[in-house]
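re: the backbone from monday

yeah here it is again, tokenized this time
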């Protein structure tokens, strides 16, 4: 998925993705920025698929 600024975000389905769903950011605060990027890209991907 390519964001507006040209940044490429690759989604990989594995157990580490639980950090996004469970919001373990208190344990892994360094994931805060990447989590926001992933969530934004994922939402854009879903919206794009909905329009096609």
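seq for it, each position gets an aa:
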């Amino acid at each position: 998925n390519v964001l507006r600024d040209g940044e490429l975000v690759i989604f990989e389905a594995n157990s580490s993705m639980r950090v996004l769903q469970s919001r373990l950011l208190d344990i892994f605060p360094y994931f805060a920025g990447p989590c926001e990027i992933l969530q934004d890209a994922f939402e854009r991907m879903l919206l794009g698929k909905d329009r096609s």
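The chain has a mean pLDDT of 70. The radius of gyration is 12 Å.
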